[in-house]
Amino acid sequence: MKSFVQAFFALGMMLVAWMALPGAAYADKAPDCMQSDTRHMADGKLQEWWDKRSPEQQKYIRELPCKERYIPMVCIFLFDPDLKECTNKGVAESRASASCQAKGLDLMSQEFADCKDAYKKSFKVPFS
Questions:
Q1: Where are the alpha helices (DSSP H) in 44-82?
Q2: What digits encode the pLDDT tens for the residues 53-63?
Q3: How far apart are CA 91 and CA 29, in angstroms?
Q4: Contacts 24+ apart (CB under 8 A), 83-86
Q5: Which helix (H) or strand (E) holds 5?
Q6: Which of 15, 44, 108, 119 could form a disulfide with 96 if both were Cys (CB 3.0 to 4.6 A apart)?
Q7: pLDDT tens for residues 55-97?
């Protein structure tokens, strides 16, 4: 009987400790810059989505700058089987476009396309 009471007490203490820690159910907090400025997820949904991501998916999202975190998220949404390749291609495309736009090239011109091709040839992928 004494061991039953001790076990019951220990279980109760663990439950109290678990409930006292806010967010204890989350192993890892979702990083900033993952929501659209115009369309926000309901409270808790972003963390719920983040908790379902694999360590590889979380790594690619977290290690990119805020303005590029959408890229691996799109790859995840599209169920691309090679997340690393999809993310690297998306980052290369995004950075090439930004670089060529900064030069003042017209988006629909051949010069813009040539500029992007040249940029991608010298681009070092973020995830190797």
A1: 45-51, 55-62, 70-77
A2: 999 999 999 99
A3: 24
A4: 83/56, 83/57, 84/56, 84/60, 84/127
A5: helix 2-20
A6: 119
A7: 999 999 999 999 999 999 999 999 989 999 999 999 999 999 9
